[in-house]
Design goal:
61% of the residues lie in helices and 0% in strands. The protein has 16 helices and no strands. The protein has helices at 4-15, 41-51, 53-57, 76-93, 98-107, 116-126, 133-148, 155-162, 173-196, 207-213, 217-232, 242-260, 269-285, 292-299, 305-314, 318-329.
């Protein structure tokens, strides 16, 4: 008698597109382990990411707006959930593997620093080994989680996480969906946050792009997702129509010029970068003050000290980084 997992794997062959990544055909994990009798491998990976500590910490990490006043601005976690929802919608319409799409989407930003891309730039500048969040996300799932044991995810999920950035080339269609869904999500929700923060108005967006994409977040999401579905159906690649792709690229550049580099949105950026670089420098000089498990990575496992310090600082939430900086550098009242 087949297990529930085997029944689900059989269903994938009967229902999913021939271009889908089938769970039974996964290239597997670095460390072999017994199969679950209920969940196929990509569903299992999704669950592991959802339950890991790095995923929970994203709720207190900046997306774009540093220290905004208000409860409705996106965080790294809400961004991740929006990417996941967009990606699942596309995958379902194309009869691709939703579990794989969701696992990649939920894990793609696990390695992000506090204070968004400004924090990433700060660590990349000061660390002699360099720092890139997509590579750090892989380090999180392969090594850092579970006290140095990692999550032992499938190769397809890790490939999608590593290649989610603009220049990436995911090996599965599910990974390609997440790569596009990431851009769709951040362009639209960053417009929403920018309007909320009075950095721009909806009518400031160039007509040459909104005439194609739509004149509201809702219409833009709807149009872009429908365009991907209609242009990718029955194909072995995920793509947009040339006009939609051009408009999205143009709107993305507009956002970089008018929001991501806007003085209001970035008013606290230099302070945040200085703080992270000071924390990095401090722990490089005082390795013995790192948490015990990080010291173990250096002493027992031979990891480079700078990489481990990056691991520690990058894993901080915004609030924890501020608290650590205050603890190390700001005088406190004392009593005898």
């Amino acid at each position: 008698m087949m297990t529930i997992r085997e029944t689900l794997e059989e269903w994938e062959y009967e229902y999913l597109s021939p271009f889908a990544a089938h769970s039974r055909e996964s290239a597997g994990r670095d460390r072999e382990e017994p199969q679950c009798d209920i969940r196929p491998v990509y569903q299992r990976d999704r669950d592991r990411i959802l339950h890991c500590k790095s995923f929970r910490r994203m709720k207190q990490k900046t997306q774009v707006f540093l220290a905004p006043e208000g409860d409705h601005y996106r965080t790294r976690l809400t961004h991740t959930l929006e990417v996941s929802q967009n990606a699942r919608t596309i995958a379902k319409a194309l009869r691709l593997n939703e579990d794989l799409v969701e696992a990649i989407a939920l894990g793609h930003d696990l390695g992000h620093t506090p204070f968004g891309h400004s924090g990433e730039a700060a660590l990349n500048e000061i660390c002699s080994l360099g720092f890139e969040h997509h590579k750090q996300s892989i380090r999180v799932v392969e090594f850092l989680e579970k006290k140095g044991n990692g999550l032992n995810l499938t190769k397809e999920v890790r490939d999608g996480i590593l290649n989610h950035q603009t220049v990436g080339h995911p090996s599965t269609l599910e990974g390609q969906i997440v790569r596009l869904s990431d851009k769709i999500a951040y362009i639209n929700h960053d417009i929403d946050d920018a309007v909320r923060g009075k950095v721009l108005r909806e009518e400031d967006l160039p007509r040459q792009y909104t005439d194609v994409l739509g004149k509201s977040n809702r219409s833009r999401l709807n149009n872009m997702i429908h365009d991907i579905v209609s242009n990718s159906t029955g194909k072995d690649k995920i793509c947009m129509s040339p006009g939609m792709q051009e408009a999205m690229t143009g709107l993305r550049k507009f956002m970089f010029d008018h929001v991501y580099q806007n003085p209001t949105a970035k008013s606290q950026e230099k302070k945040a970068q200085h703080m992270l670089q000071e924390l990095f420098s401090y722990y490089n000089r005082h390795l013995h003050e790192l948490p015990e498990e990080y010291i173990g990575y250096i002493e027992q496992r031979g990891e480079h000290p700078e990489r481990v310090v990056c691991d520690y600082v990058a894993g901080m939430t915004d609030s924890f980084a501020i608290r650590k900086f205050e603890e190390l550098y700001i005088p406190h009242a004392w009593s005898v």
